[in-house]
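Quality-control log, excerpt.
Job 1 of 2 completed; input and output follow.
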Amino acid sequence: MLYLLALPPTDSVTEGYLPAAARLGLDVTLLTDAPEAHRRAYEGRGGDAWPRIDIVPCEVRDFREVIASITALDRRPEAVFTNSDHLQVQAALAADWFRLPGKSWRAALLTKNKAQMRRALAEAGLETVWSAELARPGEEEDVRPPFPCVVKPREGVASEDAELVEDRAELLRHCRDVRSRRPGLPLVVEEYLPGPLHTLETLGDGRVLHVLGSFHESGVTPPHFVMRRADLLPEPPRTHTEQVVARLDALGVGFGACHTEFVAQEDRIRVIEINYRSAGDQADLGLAEALGIPLFEHVLRTHLGRPLPADLGARGPGRLRLETVNAARGGTLKSAPGPTEWERDGVRLVYRPLWAVGEERPLRNSDRDHLGVVRATGTDTERIEHVVAAFLAGQRWEIA
């Protein structure tokens, strides 16, 4: 029995981890605080490609409730797993409670909490970034950061409420604005790290760490940091890989999937954030396809206590492009293309909407503004670019 912790449904779980659980012969108990959303997301799914799944309401942000729910269900867990940024510590503590393989809860906390991550890397002598934690309202009055600097939630995701500020007045304004909408939210302020933005995707079993690849993200323009395009590099520079892995080692990261964002400053890298999970927004699904590996099964096997193979069996020079369609304003989505999949000219293209037609949302200046994501895989970069451009040009998204 696989116990899977989740908040709202994501493509990584719906299209990746749940089908992988079925291929591994696992029944799934999904613990979530959004049971109806998951039931709607899984309507019409079944057959051999879908596991036997039981959706159980649970306050998954509280590790004590997770442990209590698993105990009360009286179904012996073989693994406790989550791909949610917000639930890594809870899943790690629950796995440890039931004496199952899992991530170190300390490593999960160090990567989730950006202030703790900065302290740990500085104490290890690996990287020093000017950073201050603003745990309570008013503390921003006393900090003297180098400008420009970045203000963001201490435990934020998807670049939500992250902003580059140029001076003290902008710093105070942004802190007031965020706290007016999200009272009590701890923030961090840190020096701005310019340079090309990259990721490193890794997979480990606690013994061996595999480097899966690196994305180059482009079109990310301050003062906000909305992801627009990412291209899988044929091979990340060795010096960058070695530096990222050294930082992961110092934080105790090496079990399951991890998605690390960093900027390259010539031969030096500087970490932006570490997400101790597989990459989202279709990147993990595209990575599995481009490399030709059963990525999601590999991740689940680590949580079942099975060692990874020495060679993951990547089939060769696959190329991958991710491109997002972003809302230019808030409002109600009146028309948009639905889910799309096709293959032509040696390119496989998949489009997944992230807003539903009829849904109303404010503009957040974050990755929450993605209307949908295109992923395209093949072996020819120019052909992929042409196919993606032609697809986007032929579609229409209308917000009223």
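Job 2 of 2 completed; input and output follow.
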Amino acid sequence: MASGFHEVADRVFVARYPQWDVNVGLVLGRDGAVVVDTRASCLQGFAVLDDIRRLGSDIEVRHVVNTHVHFDHTFGNTAFTAATVHAHANVARAVDADADRIKALFRADPGDGPEAGYTSRDVVEVLATEVRPPDRSFELSATIDLGDRAVTMSWAGRGHTDGDIGVHIPDADAMFLGDLIEESATPSFGGDSWPLDWPDTLTEHLGWLGPTSVVVPGHGKPVDAEFVRRQRDEIAMVDRVIRERQGAGWSLEAALSEPDERLPYDLERLDSAFRRGWEQLTSRPAEPA
């Protein structure tokens, strides 16, 4: 894993950090810079700033964008005191509660170790971080004007969370998709994911992408539109199997235990996906006759 920022499109940079294998983006313009996601603690956010200064001492970070609410993408916000923080309105509504949730989980079980990708020191830093919520939020879309280029933030629906956004730099044909896409692991179906909405959300974002587009996932190497399309289709198959089993009257326990060769990921990795899908389907109002 290379250190520091590397240019992946015209004045669009990515740094990949070992703790939680998370990506941070940097978009340069005539009137300042945008940082996309900020790592998992205040100290890690300051390390991002150090890497930006090594790239160019005159770079002025005026804006931060959080692709979604999770701590490994937002807790570093506090280091960017001179910047305006942008995120979806659902992030603004949930950030404090989600921070309390993750801190409680770490207090109960730090779970550090080489296989986890972080250490006990990283956990201490997470617990010590005072969370900074967004300064500006939006429902569907918003634009940051950097003078000679625009950075567009768009919400296309629920997926990994209910507040995932795409961050698009049209003149560079580049997009950050946060954890809507993962390259270094399978998609993360957590307890706040929306597996039945996720495929359509990715379909909407694909409308921005062409054959030469660069897409930066939340974790892993930059990918192209075809990768996004393949992962969308894989998640759509998870969606399909969930709907089939629930519609056929299976119990959730049976659905979680019966393999299906169509599933693109190991069944044990889909526990939360099935549980969340079941919740969506069983709480949905009946269709009118």
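Post-run check on job 2. DSSP finds eight helices and twelve strands in the chain.
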